[in-house]
Design brief:
two-stranded antiparallel ribbon; 151 residues; single chain; mainly alpha
Length: 151
């Protein structure tokens, strides 16, 4: 009978280990979801995200080109703004895709601005709530109402 009790103990321990492993797997999956969520990281570092978006926008947007005077029988001569007239700037390629890129960047900037404004508003509301809670702990509700009125 001693081996039967030890077998039951072993089975019970194995069941406990299986349950613990399932819970740990759930925790790891939740942690992975949190780490993959960009909103989680944006809440922690909003200015870093805004700076990265500005840098990326600066790198993506092509350099300006200057339109030079027309020559006899040819179209306008395009030269980069930095003054390198003989350098090939890739301006021979039509700029058909530029409006699409510009629109996409405009949408991304608009979205980032709305997210930043929402973040600031949430933080402000949280700060006001904390202030109200700290004030209500020290004062009675009647004192809080009387103190807020302007005479």
């Amino acid at each position: 009978m001693a081996s039967g009790e030890s077998r039951d103990d072993i089975e019970r321990q194995m069941a406990l280990l299986r349950a613990a492993m399932r819970q740990e797997a759930r925790d790891v999956a939740e942690s992975a979801r949190t780490l993959a969520d960009w909103r989680y990281h944006f809440r922690g570092h909003p200015f870093l995200f805004c700076a990265a978006a500005a840098a990326l926008g600066y790198l993506i947007v092509p350099g300006r080109t200057r339109v030079g005077p027309r020559t006899s029988g040819q179209g306008a001569v395009r030269a980069p703004l930095n003054g390198a007239v003989g350098a090939s700037s890739g301006s021979d390629v039509p700029a058909a895709g530029r409006p699409l890129v510009t629109a996409a960047l405009g949408l991304a900037a608009n979205f980032a601005a709305k997210q930043a404004a929402s973040f600031v508003a949430r933080r402000g509301q949280e700060a006001l709530r904390r202030y109200a809670r700290s004030r209500s702990k020290h004062d009675s509700p009647a004192e809080v109402l009387e103190g807020d009125s302007v005479d």
